[in-house]
């Protein structure tokens, strides 16, 4: 953006998208009046046509001025902007001309039997439509209008379907769809907010007015990630108000691509060190089976949860998030240190609130909440539990034994608990368990090494 442009100019310019609808409405209204007045029954309405044309011409003039002001932001591609600008001026001039002809201030002879006022109005509507098209290209991108048309898209090569999630290109299959749905409307070749386009790899590498949007291998230095992670009320938060924010899953995908994938545009998921969470997430997004054999949509069928029940859980301090829209399967999180030694008796009441929806809980986090062994018996009845975080709690082997009958549990975090190598036998009995975090427990590295020599699963993670 040109720093010499005053804020007042940009402020007024931002009303262009509102004002521009007035000339469109007035001029199309004049066209409709002209067409309907051809009928003898409605011939009298032709008296309103000059007023509609004049209102359209004046509002088009105002829209042109505001459009010029808006263009000073520098957020738009120059070629398309210039075309839209001059077409807007042409529309305004033709609208005034049509008004002058219709009021007979200017008299022109009929051409080939077509009345000049009709010819002028048809030309106004034609140029107005073309002007609007280029304006739409500036706002939404050049392919917005015909993107989903059943013709003319032969130049866009569709992605080849993959059957193995690890064969999927991280950028093409996972990252680019996020950009297309959440970012491209403001960051395309025609409209570059902040000078940034996310249309393709060349544009992304180029960055914007503030430099590189992505710092390969360093999420913390990536301006794009900084903005999507801000508080939604922050001035720099992206996408802006009125647009749909990125989900936690989409943020995780971008984080993974930048950090683990070094923002490589050609690397496949199988070439990277990838967590089970990302593999599972990518599998779901691509409609493939993940390591657990689940398929996108192949989720446990459970009863719908009463709204009042969910509200009562939230009142207890839990964060509740539905994992898949209308799946009735939830992630439940009790923020760390909600329960301390001083209010330890409250954990029992809070966990009892979860029992009515125990079959609906798929992810549960109770980390650092003074959770003791006696409370794990109720958790052991949550048959659809997939991931359980109970780290940093006074849990021992007795509590872990209460979890052995959870049929779908795949991930278990026991970091900073009191479990010993006696729990290794419990891990082996958990039929779906794939990974257990046991750092800073009484399980030693030697215990883990000996266990992994004789057991194929679960994978015991001793280092964080």
UniProtKB/TrEMBL annotation:
Domain DUF2231: 15-139
Listed Pfam families: DUF2231 (PF09990), PSCyt1 (PF07635)
UniProt cross-references to InterPro entries, sorted A to Z: Cyt_c-like_dom_sf, Cyt_c_Planctomycete-type, DUF2231_TM, LRR_dom_sf
Keyword check for Oxidoreductase: no
Superkingdom as given in the UniProt entry: Bacteria
A GO molecular-function descriptor: electron transfer activity
Keyword list, A-Z: Membrane, Transmembrane, Transmembrane helix
UniProt key word Membrane: yes
Transmembrane segments: 15-36, 48-71, 83-101, 113-134
Signal peptide residues on this chain, from the entry's feature table: none
Residue ranges of domain Cytochrome C Planctomycete-type in the record: 183-242
Name of the protein in question: Uncharacterized membrane protein
């Amino acid at each position: 953006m040109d720093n010499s442009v005053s804020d007042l100019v940009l402020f007024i310019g931002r009303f262009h998208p509102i004002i521009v609808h007035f000339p469109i409405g007035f001029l199309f209204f004049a066209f409709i009046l002209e067409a309907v007045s051809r009928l003898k029954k409605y011939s009298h309405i032709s008296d309103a046509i000059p007023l509609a044309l004049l209102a359209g011409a004046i509002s088009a003039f105002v829209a042109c001025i505001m459009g010029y002001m808006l263009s000073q932001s520098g957020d738009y591609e120059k070629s398309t902007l210039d075309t839209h600008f001059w077409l807007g001026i042409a529309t305004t001039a033709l609208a005034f001309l049509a008004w002058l002809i219709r009021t007979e201030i200017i008299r022109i002879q009929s051409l080939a039997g077509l009345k000049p006022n009709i010819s002028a109005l048809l030309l106004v509507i034609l140029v107005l439509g073309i002007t609007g098209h280029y304006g739409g290209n500036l706002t939404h991108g050049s392919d917005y209008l015909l993107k989903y048309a059943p013709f003319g898209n032969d130049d866009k090569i569709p992605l080849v379907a993959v059957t193995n999630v690890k064969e999927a290109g991280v950028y093409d299959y996972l990252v680019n769809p996020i950009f297309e749905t959440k970012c491209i409307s403001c960051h395309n070749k025609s409209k570059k907010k902040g000078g940034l386009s996310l249309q393709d790899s060349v544009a992304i590498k180029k960055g914007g007015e503030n430099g590189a949007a992505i710092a390969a291998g360093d999420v913390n230095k990536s301006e794009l990630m900084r903005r999507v992670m801000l508080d939604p009320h922050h001035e720099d938060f992206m996408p802006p108000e009125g647009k749909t924010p990125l989900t936690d899953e989409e943020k995780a995908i971008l984080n993974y691509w930048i950090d683990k994938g070094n923002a490589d545009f050609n690397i496949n998921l199988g070439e990277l060190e990838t967590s089970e969470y990302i593999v599972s997430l990518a599998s779901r997004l691509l409609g493939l089976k993940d390591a657990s054999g689940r398929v996108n949509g192949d989720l446990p069928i459970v009863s719908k949860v009463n709204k009042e029940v969910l509200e009562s859980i939230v009142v207890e301090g839990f964060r509740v998030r539905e994992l898949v829209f209308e799946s009735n399967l939830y992630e439940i999180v009790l923020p760390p240190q909600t329960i301390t030694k001083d209010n330890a008796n409250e954990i029992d009441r809070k966990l009892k609130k979860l029992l009515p929806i125990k079959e609906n809980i798929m992810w549960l986090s109770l980390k650092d909440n003074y959770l003791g062994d006696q409370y794990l018996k109720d958790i052991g009845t949550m048959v659809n539990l997939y991931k359980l975080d109970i780290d940093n709690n006074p849990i021992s082997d007795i509590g872990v034994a209460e979890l052995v009958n959870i049929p779908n549990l795949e991930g278990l975090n026991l970091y900073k608990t009191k479990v010993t190598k006696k729990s290794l036998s419990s891990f082996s009995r958990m039929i779906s368990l794939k990974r257990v975090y046991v750092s800073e427990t009484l399980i030693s590295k030697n215990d883990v090494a000996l266990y992994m020599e004789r057991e194929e699963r679960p994978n015991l993670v001793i280092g964080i």
